[in-house]
UniProtKB/TrEMBL annotation:
InterPro entries: Mpo1-like. This is DUF962 domain-containing protein. Coiled coil: none annotated. The keyword tRNA processing does not apply. It comes from Alteromonas portus.
Amino acid sequence: MTAQTSADTHFASFKEFYPFYLNEHKDGTCRTLHFIGSWLVLTVIALAVFMASWSLLWFIPLVGYGFAWVGHFFFEKNRPATFKHPLYSLMGDWVMFKDILVGKISLKGE
């Protein structure tokens, strides 16, 4: 299946969505910012648990989306898929994070 190019496209499954998601994250800086944001989300969760400071969890959207959206608006120059496909986009963030960790895809982008 080829990657979809329109954010308005309907996806019947995450499997159909993920190629579109990767196509929206071709820029290496954008991918790197997503990766950093994901690490920071995990760090905030770990700190909240370790310190039993649940108010830290309010920072999750700030660090997660903050880094990702800077990547999209300033480097990728597109609208984040979150606006049209919030659940699949969130899933895509973590699948891409895992794929980068295991070497399936590169931080350098295409």
